[in-house]
Design brief:
single chain, 84 residues, mainly alpha, 3 helices, globular
Length: 84
């Protein structure tokens, strides 16, 4: 079970709502994986067992909302994916 403070929302909670600037994947599975990493890293950093990681770690430097949406012109549904 995940513990959070009342005034601080977890990365996983935000990932469930949809893509954000620091977690831009359209795939819920990928957003949750990234969010779980950041939640765990924050817990370890609070315990002094790890160093904090910037929220945009691992993302391209030139990521902005326009370039993000340019990758998914048809939306995130299966109809926009190529068939195998």
């Amino acid at each position: 079970m995940m513990t959070t403070t009342m005034n601080k929302e977890s990365h996983v909670d935000r990932a469930r709502r949809g893509p954000t600037h620091d977690n831009p994947s359209v795939s819920l599975k990928k957003r949750l994986k990234r969010a779980a990493f950041f939640d765990q890293r924050e817990r370890l950093a609070a315990e002094g067992k790890a160093v904090p990681v910037e929220a945009d770690a691992g993302l391209p430097d030139a990521l902005d909302d326009q370039s993000l949406m340019a990758h998914w012109p048809g939306g995130s549904g299966s109809e926009s994916r190529p068939s195998a």
